[in-house]
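hi! just following up on the protien thing from before. the input was this:
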Amino acid sequence: MLNYVWRRILTTNPFMTASILSRLTNETAMAYNFIGMTLDELCDDIKNNLQSLLNTRAWQSETFESSQTNLFTYGLPDFSHDYFDQQSVQHSLCIQIAHVIERYEPRLSHVRVNVLEEKRLQRLLALRISALLNSEPVQAAVFESKLDLVRQRMEFF
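and the predicted 3d structure came back as:
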C-alpha cells in the first residue's frame, strides 16, 4: 500500500519523474511517466543522473556567465590542477559540487557535500551528498560516492 501511495505522490509531482537522460536512454524510464516511480527507483535515477553530471567537465570560458544554465556550463569544472591535500581545496570542491547539483538536478534542494574520508595514497576522496527531495512529503536523501582525483571520476555506491 505504501508503495502505491509513493507512486501516486511521485506521479503527480512533475519534478519526480525520471531524468531526461534516463528517458532518452532507458525504455523503462518512459513508463515512469505513466505509472510513477517508487522512492527507491527515484533515488536510483537521481544517483545515475548525479554520476553523469559530476563526471562531465564544464567548458570554461568567459563567454558564458557562471549564472547561466546551459550545455557549456553542465558539469564540474576541471580540477586536475588542484592540490587536494589541503582542507580548504576539499571544501571548495564540495561547494562546487553542491552548486552544480542544485543547478542541474531540480529534484533535489538544500544540497550539502561533505568529505567523509581522504585516502591520500590512493588519491581518493569519499564524499557524502545530503539533500532534500522536492516532493510531497519532503524526504531526505543521502548519496555516498568516491572521487578518484587522478582520473577525475566519481562513482556512487
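The chain has one domain: 39-156.
The domain at 39-156 is CATH 3.10.450.40 (Nuclear Transport Factor 2; Chain: A,).
cheers
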